[in-house]
Design brief:
Length: 330
């Protein structure tokens, strides 16, 4: 049987449990939080006072913080790119004889939950008055238009490694923003980012569980897929960030420097995520691996320490880059 057919069979086997995945890892729209729960009510008498308070408190945080927050928001707003990629994965079918299969429904409901993140952050950043929203909107439009290749092709094994990693990375980023905002006295923004981080962690647990179940039935191929993704490194969704009239990908290095300097997402976070994935999938205890997969496992076990030593040598410059996203303080 070909690798394609094996993956398809595995996905069809996992799909038999799809209803439990929905109940364990997703929340109905009527029960989950919505963006308006964290924003001033435009129908309320105190709306303008609340907006004024947001604008005043927002002045207390520096450009590094706002650039990091904008980057998080734009990444969330580029959701159409991620949905279109996942819907094409082997085993995910929205054109079956019986209509959409369970995996297609999963992707759409996951997308619907994720969609709220960019929505609430966009509105809050708009109200803050700290950001040139037109430039941010141009960046978002470019990011969706440009798309990106995450190096997974249509392989569900590689795609689920990617989503396991990326959901945990966004948890870390939003959680760190929440801590910074809380320290600055921005309670509503802190609470907002904390609950977004909670969503990301729940989604991370879902994709991690999918990989765990694949390891149980196809350990060697799953190990090789994990190895492939880590060896070639995870392509960040923000990799192709650009501002108006700039070429694709010209902004990411500057943005990455700022996010590290602000303590929102660092090289050490990247290493820590690999450790957590190794632990979650218990790759040190994996059995029934073929020789190639055993070699891949050994690489993965040593990878965190090797990358940690690299991270220790990284010096984040203090260069204050110009971002068109930012409005000057008045």
């Amino acid at each position: 049987m070909s690798a394609f057919n094996i993956r398809l069979e595995v996905m069809q086997t996992l799909e038999k449990n799809i209803e439990s995945f929905f109940s364990d890892f997703l929340i109905a729209p009527e029960k989950i939080w919505q963006p308006t729960d964290f924003l001033p009510n435009p129908q309320g008498n105190s709306f303008m006072d609340e907006v004024t308070e947001i604008r005043e408190i927002s002045k207390d945080l520096d450009n590094d913080f706002w650039i990091s927050l904008v980057g998080d928001m734009v990444t969330e707003e580029a959701l159409p790119t991620y949905e279109s990629w996942l819907i094409d994965v082997v085993g995910i079918d929205q054109h079956g004889e019986q209509g959409d299969n369970g995996w297609a429904r999963w992707v759409r409901q996951w997308t619907a939950e994720e969609n709220r993140h960019g929505d609430v952050l966009n509105k809050y950043i708009y109200l803050s008055g700290r950001v040139n929203m037109r430039e941010v909107e141009i960046t978002t439009q470019h990011l969706i238009t440009d798309g990106f290749d995450i190096g997974t092709s249509r392989d569900p094994y590689k795609n689920f490694v990617y989503t396991s990693f990326q959901e945990l990375a966004t948890y870390v980023s939003h959680n760190n923003v929440a801590k910074i905002a809380k320290k600055a006295g921005m309670k509503s923004l802190s609470k907002m980012c904390k609950i977004i981080a909670g969503d990301e962690m729940r989604h991370h647990k879902a994709y991690t569980e999918f990989v765990r179940q694949i390891f149980a039935v196809d350990p060697s191929e799953m190990m090789l897929a994990y190895f492939h993704m880590m060896k070639h490194k995870i392509t960040m969704p923000a990799m192709h960030l650009r501002e108006s009239f700039e070429a694709k990908g010209t902004l990411f290095d500057r943005f990455s420097e700022v996010a590290q300097r602000a303590g929102v997402y660092t090289s050490f976070d990247y290493v820590d995520i690999i450790k957590k994935l190794n632990d979650a999938w218990q790759i040190d205890k994996m059995t029934n691996l073929n020789p190639e997969a055993e070699k891949a496992r050994n690489y993965l076990m040593k990878l965190p320490d090797r990358m940690y030593r690299i991270a220790e040598r990284i010096v984040v410059p203090d260069t204050q880059h110009h971002f068109k996203w930012m409005n000057p303080l008045t």
